[in-house]
Amino acid sequence: MSTPFTYAASGVDIDAGERAVTLMRAAVERTNRPEVVGGLGGFAGLFALDTAKYSKPLLASSTDGVGTKIALARQLDRHDTVGIDLVAMVVDDLVACGAEPLFLQDYVACGKVVPERIAAIVTGIAAGCTQAGAALVGGETAEHGDLMDADEYDLAATAVGVVEADAVLGPERVVEGDVVVAMASSGFHSNGYSLVRRVVSAAGLDLHATPAGLDRPLGEELLEPTRIYARDCLALVEAFGVGDVHAFAHITGGGLASNTARVVPEGLEAVLDRGTWALPAAVRLMEEHGVPREESERAFNCGVGMVAAVSPSAADAVVARLSAVGVPAWVAGTVGQRTGETAARLEGTYR
């Protein structure tokens, strides 16, 4: 009699998947909000939207992944931070329109379920949700042994938020004379890693060594989790109102100028002064090994992870409030009449 076929022998270990759920359960449950109905293990996540709290609520949603930063996590065998990156990429897109993140669902595809590794990834996702104030109401772990190597995995997530219809932020609120407040990034965040990894490989850089200009090993610098701005941005709206806080731009792929341009209305431009901040040492390292400045400013955030367009009368108070809660911030530019083809541009020289 031939050996019977089993799912495990085909590359899908149901027992390992169940153990991974057991290991991640406590971290997931810590993200619960009062509106969460039921617990981990159902077929769908349930969330009770308090309609009495809103007069005309709009639901907002965002989907994203982490990208090739995961390849570095695999290379360094550290998997507890990329989940924070995943959450940041979706909740900070939500808050750009003024939406409060409510809940998130994740998707983990892997070549082989290693319970401890999956638990580390999801624990990171839960940590990010806690930072953002969002509940992690469910997700999926899929074992794809025929498509991926045993140590390969990829991440994606969708988050849902809510905003009052009359409080939506965006270019419609931005006017001439507005001030652009920059919020510091924590590193490369989760963009530009295909270029970063190519430079590291071509230059033979040691991820375990500390290059000149950095104060920690390169691998640690590159795996620094993305800063999550959601709660701090929402606090600005609550403190100053939409009369003073007009728009947020999440600085992701495409860089500072192109993402800022997305919140500038027709006929106006945001001019950002490079001289108001220093180019991060890790970006300078990439440039020293062959990345042109123009490419840096397209591929990397260059030290700015989020910008806010605010009224000039509120700018100093906005900067002070952000700085007080640990988010380095500064006035980086202004909005004026458009003089060229683009809605946002950089000028000057970095400090």
List keywords for this structure.
single chain, 351 residues, alpha+beta, 60s Ribosomal Protein L30, Chain: A, Phosphoribosyl-aminoimidazole Synthetase, Chain A, domain 2, 2 domains, 6-stranded mixed beta sheet, 4-stranded mixed beta sheet, 11 helices, 33% helix, PurM-like_N, ATP-binding
Distance between the termini: 75 Å
Looking at CATH, which topology of the largest domain would you report?
Phosphoribosyl-aminoimidazole Synthetase, Chain A, domain 2
CATH superfamily of the largest domain: PurM-like C-terminal domain
Number of DSSP E strands? 12
Element-by-element helix/strand order: HEEEHHEHEEEHHHEHEHHEHEE
What integer is the average pLDDT?
93
GO biological process, one term: adenine biosynthetic process
Domain PurM-like C-terminal: 176-341
Subcellular location: Cytoplasm
Domain PurM-like N-terminal: 58-163
Layout of strands and helices, then pairs:
Elements: H1 14-29, E1 36-37, E2 46-47, E3 57-65, H2 69-76, H3 82-94, E4 100-110, H4 115-132, E5 135-143, E6 153-164, E7 179-184, H5 193-203, H6 218-223, H7 230-240, E8 245-250, H8 255-261, E9 268-273, H9 281-288, H10 293-299, E10 304-310, H11 315-324, E11 329-337, E12 344-347
Parallel strand pairs: 4-5, 9-12
Antiparallel strand pairs: 1-2, 3-6, 4-6, 7-10, 7-11, 8-10, 9-11
GO biological process, one term: 'de novo' IMP biosynthetic process
Main location: cytoplasm
Organism: Blastococcus haudaquaticus
